[in-house]
Amino acid sequence: MLFEELNLIEPILKALQTEGYTQPTPIQEQSIPSILQGKDLLGCAQTGTGKTAAFAIPMLQLLSKPHTNTKIHKAIKALVLTPTRELAIQIEESFKAYGKNLPIKHLVIFGGVGQKAQTDALHRGVDILVATPGRLLDLMNQGFISLKDIELFVLDEADRMLDMGFIHDVKKVIAKLPTVRQTLFFSATMPKEIQILADTILRNPVKVEVTPVSSTAEKIQQQIFYVEKNDKRGLLMHILQDKTIETALVFARTKHGADRIVKDLVKVGVKAEAIHGNKSQNARQRALTNFKAKTTRILVATDIAARGIDVDELTHVINYELPNIPETYVHRIGRTGRAGLSGTALSFCDAEEKEFLDDIEKLIGLKLPVTEDHPYAMSWQSLMSGAAAAKGKSKAKPSRGARPPRADRGAGSARTEREPNLSGAKKTAGAGGGNRKRWGNKPKSSNS
């Protein structure tokens, strides 16, 4: 199918042609006609499948029709709510690209920067507002934003909203929306809590699901490295000796942990920057720009900051620490293997994280291959005994829970989050690794 077959208006088709787009992706092909018909939509597709265009294109077309009520020409008619600054910026850029030939005004607002430029733009009039929950509620409370004329509401990355603790903010926003509206609900995964939320705000929605809820892209080569916690630093340095890894996105569980990884990489001459919630918006954008331009080889990110990172031809994602929420693993590795390209996801797993790995494999329905051909390999016996000890310790402290707190929860999180131990990488091979060949020296090997 071609975009011309989706009954799109000429200004949008011309913009798509300028962008070099001729064929819609499956999520776009299935979503656009239903949205143009004014139907609510529940879209489930893994990251990198073109979800943003799936709602941005038909929204622009719907809002291009003249309004009978001329009194609301300055009113906000569409709201896109999204969890992170980076994703908000990316979505607004999509509206700008696809709507370049339409007289539709759009604005992105988020925290971490001064509000004056945002409030000035709101005063001049905005048709489409892209926002993160915190700044939106702040400006609503100050009287700068009214949602009473919203015709289209998009909740994007709903599962991440839940993960990040934004669910109460989302409900506050929804309470201020008109009852009569069109709602588009998008999520990369569909856990039970998200399904319940969708049921409360959607009316007879069309459901679009282009991939299984918990699937990982087929073209992503996934590998697990069993390693002692104290050896993760050495393993990362060792893997990055492979010069074919031009750029890599490394995931840390905490903000402080991400900074420590960057510090250690810079010490050995690897250009690296961190992106997380404690960084200013300018610093985050600069780090992302450098990474996209490949002037920075390694970008170290926490899960919250990484959502919305869309880097063309990113070949490697490295999970320095496994996430304690299995759906997060799907999000992380989805940063690579985008737009039909291949990618590689390497994950470090210590004894305490074996439980997380079990949950991930259960979710995706796949036993991940283990790479033992590296100098820090942890024996299976050590892994299992350590995992059993960690599990017993967590049961002995039921009030703390078996899993660590989720990262980037805000003030005080640095005191409660678990952090990686980056001290003292081994100079000799780990258990059973004395005669093993070094990982990365055999690019043709399936284990390299």
UniProtKB/TrEMBL annotation:
Keywords: ATP-binding, Cytoplasm, Helicase, Hydrolase, Nucleotide-binding
Any one Gene Ontology molecular-function term assigned to this protein's record: RNA helicase activity
UniProt-listed SMART domains: DEXDc, HELICc
GO biological process: response to temperature stimulus; ribosome assembly
Domain Helicase ATP-binding: 32-208
Reactions that this protein is recorded to catalyse: ATP + H2O = ADP + phosphate + H(+)
Cytoplasm keyword on record: yes
Span of domain Helicase C-terminal: 219-379
Motif (Q motif): 1-29
Assigned protein family: Belongs to the DEAD box helicase family.
Name of the molecule in the record: DEAD-box ATP-dependent RNA helicase RhpA
Organism: Pedobacter frigoris
